[in-house]
Amino acid sequence: MSNPTASSSPEALVLAPRVIRREIWIVLALSLGASAIWSIVSILGTLTEPGGLADSVQSMNTAKAEAERPWYDLARQLVSLALAMAPVALVLHLLSLDRGDPFRRIGLDLRRPGFDLLGGAALAACIGIPGLGLYLAARELGVNATIAAANLNDVWWAVPILVLAALKNSILEEVIGVGYLITRLQQLAWKPVPIVVTHALLRGTYHLYQGFGGFIGNAVMGAVFALCFLKWKRTGPLVVAHLLLDIVAFVGYLLVAPHVSWL
Asked: What distance separates the 2 farthest-apart alpha carbons in the chain?
């Protein structure tokens, strides 16, 4: 007689395609998909304002309280960063239901730390320098907003919070947008090309608030990251690369922007 509990174990659970599709839509509506929708709304608003994209400034990592209450601002920053991890916890939970360890499944474990660190650093270098050039060119052409990447009050904890914000972005986007989404699309028997195109368009769209330069640059980054995941089966190097890029952008802006005119 067969073991009646064997077919009900998490490893043996097989999700129907309609369940996977429904799950994807729900996850995206709670995370990157919602950001994409708001980004479209944002750029429509910017384009219809006097001056359009050329005169627009998009502020990131802003203070959440007045300068006179830095402790309250810090508390709100930390709570915001912590709650942003809820969708990540959700997708890891969902991935664990049908195939066991979700960290190993998307390559976010510690099996290959050297590869993740070196691969991530190489990816950051290959993407970061051309990305800065594209941003400056797009801004000169008037098709991109000016990005103010760090707008905190003059507080001692500004750099640690910016590093945590970079970590939040890298985990949120790579775990959900790459690890989870591509894994689920592969379960739906999608081919590599539509997977790469879908992820590239998603990443570009939720950065569209920055302008058309931001859309193109992030879509290219999304295509590269999707290809890397399909080849390496790991989000580890992608998280490292994204983390390094955002730390340089956020902390670099905080330290350099007051002294230069072209940022």
From this structure: 77
In a domain, residue 8? The reply is no
Q: Number of H helices and number of E strands within the chain?
A: 11, 2
Domains identified in the chain, total number: 1
Kindly state the tokens that stand for 166: 């970079």
* C-alpha to C-alpha distance for 206 and 219, rounded to whole angstroms: 10
Tell whether 174 is covered by a domain.
yes
The pTM for the full model equals 0.91
What tens digit of pLDDT does each residue of 56-105 get?
999 999 999 888 899 999 999 999 999 999 999 999 999 999 878 999 99
* Weakly modelled stretches of the chain, pLDDT under 70: 1-12, 260-263
The backbone torsions φ and ψ at residue 144, rounded to the nearest 5 degrees and listed phi first, read -145, 145
Nearest to 133 by CA among 203, 216, 50, 23: 216
- The whole-number pLDDT of residue 100 equals 85
Question: Domain residues for 66?
Answer: 15-259
The single residue listed with the structure tokens 């879908």 is 198
Q: How would you classify residue 99: left for phi > 0, otherwise alpha for psi between -120 and 50, otherwise beta?
A: alpha
- Domain assignment present for 4: no
Q: Could you tell me if residue 163 is inside a domain?
A: yes
